[in-house]
Structures are given as C-alpha cells and as structure tokens.
Amino acid sequence: MRFKDTVNQALTAIFAQPLRASLIVLAMSIGIGSVTILTALGESARSYVVHEFQALGTHLLIILPGRNETTGGQPPMFGETPRDLTLQDAEAINSSPYVAAMAPISVGSAPISALGLEREGTIMGSTTALRRIRHLNLAQGRFLPPADIEKASPICVIGQTIKNELFANRDVLGQWLRINDRRFQVIGVLASEGQSIGVDLDDVVVVPVASAQILFNNHSLFRILAEAKSKQAMHQAKEHIRQIIKNRHEGEDDITIITQDSVVSAFDDILTALTLTVASIASISLLVAGVLVMNVMLVSVTQRTAEIGLLKALGATGNQLQWLFLTEAAILSLAGALLGMLLGKVALMILQWIYQDFPLVLPLWALLAAVAVAIFTGLLFGVLPARKAAALNPINALAKR
C-alpha cells in the first residue's frame, strides 16, 4: 500500500463518520486553542514587563536607602531607614569614574493650581540629567537647565494631563502654577509617555530637586538614578558607588543598589517559567483530547473489522494497517490543531480589542510547538487502536468476530 493510498483510505474513513471525526477535531481544537491563548498571554506579560524596565534607561543603576538586612525585607519606599541619602551623597556618586550621569529623585504629592483650577498631582524633584537617564521626550519648551544641584529655582516641566486639565487650550509656556504655597513657571511640557513602572508621567510636575525638598520640607532623597558609562562598567560602578556611600556613612553599608539588567533578568526568568507552567496546565486538555482519540479509534476498529479483514486478505501487512490508523489519527489531530490556532487567534484579536494598551503577541515557537504536540498526542493515543487493528485475524475479521 503506497503512501498516497494510505492517505486516501484514511480520508475516506474520516468522511464516512463525520460526527466521530468532528468530535475528535473539536476536542483537539479546544486543547490547542487553550494552549495558544494562555501561552500568548504569558509571553505578552513577559515582553511587556521586560520592555517597561528596559525603557527606564540605559545601563541604569537605582540606589535606594536602606538594606534588606536592616529592615527585615525589601528597602522601604517611604519611612524610616538607617541613614537617608542626601544631595551630597548624590554629588559624590556623580564623581565616580564609572558613572556617566546621575539624577537624584525626590517625590511627593501636592495640590497643583493654575488659572482658578486645582488638582492633586505627583511632584518629582530632579536635575537636568533625569531627561538623559530616563530618555524623556519633550512636546514643548525645554527641560530643567543645568544648575547647581543645591539651588532651588521656581521653574517646572509638566506632563500632558496637567497641561490639559489646568491650561486647556492655552499656550502653557511661560505660565505660572502654584504647588502648595509656592509658584513655579512652566518652561516645558513632556511628551505623552503614559504609565512607566506604576508612575504616570503624564500626571507629573518635574521641578529642581532642591525646590522639591523645600516644598516637602524633607532633605532626604527618595532614590538616586545613575547611568554607567557602559554595560561592561556596570559592575565596577555598582561596587564603587557602594564604597563611596560606605565611606560617607561612617563605614555602614546601608544602601541597596539595583541594576537594570538584574531586574530585567529576574522578571524574564519568572514570567518565562510562569508562561511554561500555564501552557503545561492548558496542555492537560490535549491529554483529554488524546484519550478521546484513542477511545473513538478503538470503536472505529470494532466497527471496521470487516474492512480490516478484507485489507489483510488482499495482502495488507500489519505494519501497513498500523500506518493506516496512525495516518487517520494524525490527519484528525492536524485538523484540530489548525482549527484550534484559528480559534486562538480570534480570541486574541478580541482580547486585543478589549485591552488595547496591552500588546498581545503570539510567538512563532508557540504555534509550531502546539501543532507538534497535537500531532504527537494523536499518534501516541492512536498506537493502541492501530496495533489492535493490525493484530486481527483476517478470517475472523471478515466474519466480524
């Protein structure tokens, strides 16, 4: 029996029992669709988080006050720490030969008012280096100019939401706004950036760091951002910064330094493992589909004993009969895989339409793996029925015994 004849015979058997074939294809498509959707969601979450951290800057180091050992947990975002980071610490870090740029960060929330309108907003104190380190773009005007880090100045750069809600269609450059009891002149408007690691940059007002410290009556820094001169220099920069702060803090190693690469790598590993775990759970439905393939094919062997007996009487070998049933199982599995991928793509398109801000991507490897697993499952669970058919005695089969 030639390969072409085997395929034709398998297709004839499939179309002879459309209900049976449809059940197998449906079961397989549900399994493949589940794997496709969950894999796409997991992979999209991984890509989104990694991209968000990469967008923070290039060769980035984040210096936070406090260490895990001193607080019994992660460094606190707010609250008591053994020793605060100061502007003098930031200037010392900037003097490191491994650091290309440094931006101190002071953050707080305050009422912002202009032209009789008022809203609550996030105030971020920093320096001109913040634009370089965070890759910020401007829609209008200019960013904070180079200046003495300890010099307060009544100027600010605002986000798009602040501009739209307080100044509407007016020309915003040169206008004055009030933060708490102090006035600041708008010199620039940030381009719309959206959310970045939980911070809405459209809803922020950037002022000189010394001005922010006066606003909030707080001389400690929220954190310090530093950019290493190269990827290779990141380790040296990290160790040198740690030594600088240790020398300034009376020998206490009381800071935590997070590198961009370590954060990206950690999230990448976690979310990749999560994606594979979720896909594995979804693959259970493929096992259910495989059991259905086996049961239906066993019923098919029972119903086609006369046909099998005739084929054996005409000279078909046991191996040829095995290949006939395995081909039938493979065709049904492939059809189920293709239908499942189509259903998965439609579901992802609907999800993308609902959640437009979250980019959904289905990696090619997931598609290929889903098809391969579907065919393998069909063949695996088709072996028993195929062997049963091949073992039938031709005389008994022709007599339907």
From TrEMBL:
<feature type="transmembrane region" description="Helical">
    <location>
        <begin position="270"/>
        <end position="294"/>
    </location>
</feature>
<comment type="similarity">
    <text>Belongs to the ABC-4 integral membrane protein family.</text>
</comment>
<keyword id="KW-1133">Transmembrane helix</keyword>
<keyword id="KW-0812">Transmembrane</keyword>
<dbReference type="GO" id="GO:0005886">
    <property type="term" value="C:plasma membrane"/>
</dbReference>
<dbReference type="GO" id="GO:0022857">
    <property type="term" value="F:transmembrane transporter activity"/>
</dbReference>
<protein>
    <submittedName>
        <fullName>ABC transporter permease</fullName>
    </submittedName>
</protein>
<feature type="domain" description="MacB-like periplasmic core">
    <location>
        <begin position="23"/>
        <end position="244"/>
    </location>
</feature>
<dbReference type="InterPro" id="IPR025857">
    <property type="entry name" value="MacB_PCD"/>
</dbReference>
<feature type="domain" description="ABC3 transporter permease C-terminal">
    <location>
        <begin position="280"/>
        <end position="394"/>
    </location>
</feature>
<feature type="transmembrane region" description="Helical">
    <location>
        <begin position="329"/>
        <end position="355"/>
    </location>
</feature>
<keyword id="KW-0472">Membrane</keyword>
<feature type="transmembrane region" description="Helical">
    <location>
        <begin position="21"/>
        <end position="41"/>
    </location>
</feature>
<dbReference type="Pfam" id="PF12704">
    <property type="entry name" value="MacB_PCD"/>
</dbReference>
<dbReference type="InterPro" id="IPR003838">
    <property type="entry name" value="ABC3_permease_C"/>
</dbReference>
<keyword id="KW-1003">Cell membrane</keyword>
<dbReference type="Pfam" id="PF02687">
    <property type="entry name" value="FtsX"/>
</dbReference>
<dbReference type="InterPro" id="IPR050250">
    <property type="entry name" value="Macrolide_Exporter_MacB"/>
</dbReference>
<feature type="transmembrane region" description="Helical">
    <location>
        <begin position="361"/>
        <end position="384"/>
    </location>
</feature>
